[in-house]
């Protein structure tokens, strides 16, 4: 799998695979795998990947592409694959943090952000699912 950043947007943080299936008890399950990421980070002891960082300047509603990568590429195999279980998979690509629309509006109108308003977010792109049927 491969992802390339939009030329007018933020660099890429990571690619994830989301897997869904129904277990033996009939319960819906979902698991998210971080499969490739930027900036040479290493998952912690808990298996979680640390945040990529944040270059957003909320006051000016800008960011820099000094973190993340413009392109991420890998080959991935499901480490928990069970050929007897129906499943679906889709890829999710996360950008580095960028200003949210509220930050752009606050800058444009010259106003303070309301208390509790989020000014930063991470855009995501999703692929169509791949369905596996035994």
Polypeptide structure, described:
- This protein has 134 residues and is mostly beta strands.
- It has one domain: Immunoglobulin-like.
- Helix content is 7%, strand content 34%.
- The protein has one helix and nine strands, in the order ββββββαβββ.
- Strands 2, 3, 5, 8 and 9 form a five-stranded antiparallel beta sheet that branches. A two-stranded antiparallel ribbon has the order 1-4. A two-stranded antiparallel ribbon has the order 6-7.
- The longest helix has 9 residues, at 101-109.
- The protein is elongated and about 60 Å long.
- The mean pLDDT is 96.
Task: Summarize this structure as a short list of keywords or feature phrases.
134 residues, mainly beta, Immunoglobulin-like, 5-stranded antiparallel β-sheet, two-stranded antiparallel sheet, 1 helix, 9 strands
Topology at a glance:
Layout: E1 2-4, E2 12-22, E3 28-37, E4 71-73, E5 87-95, E6 98-99, H1 101-109, E7 120-121, E8 124-126, E9 130-132
Antiparallel strand pairs: 1-4, 2-3, 2-5, 5-8, 5-9, 6-7
What does the main sheet amount to? 5 strands, antiparallel
* Count of individual beta strands: 9
Helix content: under 10%
Structural shape: elongated
- The tally of structural domains comes to 1
Report the order of strands and helices: EEEEEEHEEE
Just name the CATH architecture: Sandwich
Mean pLDDT: 96
Total of helices: 1
| Class from helix and strand fractions | mainly beta
Beta-strand content estimate: 25-35%
In CATH, what is the class?
A: Mainly Beta
CA gyration radius, whole angstroms: 18 Å
Instruction: Give the CATH topology.
Output: Immunoglobulin-like
**Could you list the spans in which at least 5 consecutive residues all have pLDDT below 50?**
none
Give the termini separation.
23 Å
């Amino acid at each position: 799998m491969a992802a390339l950043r939009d030329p007018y947007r933020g660099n890429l943080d990571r690619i994830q695979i989301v897997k869904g299936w129904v277990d033996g008890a009939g319960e819906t399950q979902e698991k998210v795998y971080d499969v490739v990421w930027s900036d040479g980070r290493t998952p912690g002891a808990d298996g979680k990947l640390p945040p990529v960082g944040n270059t957003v300047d909320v006051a000016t509603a800008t960011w820099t592409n000094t973190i993340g990568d413009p392109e991420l590429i890998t080959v991935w195999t499901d480490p928990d694959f069970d050929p007897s279980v129906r499943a679906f998979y889709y890829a999710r690509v996360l950008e580095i943090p960028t200003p949210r629309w509220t930050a752009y509006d606050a800058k444009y109108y010259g106003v303070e952000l309301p208390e509790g308003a989020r000014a930063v977010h991470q855009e995501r792109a999703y692929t169509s699912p791949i369905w596996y049927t035994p």
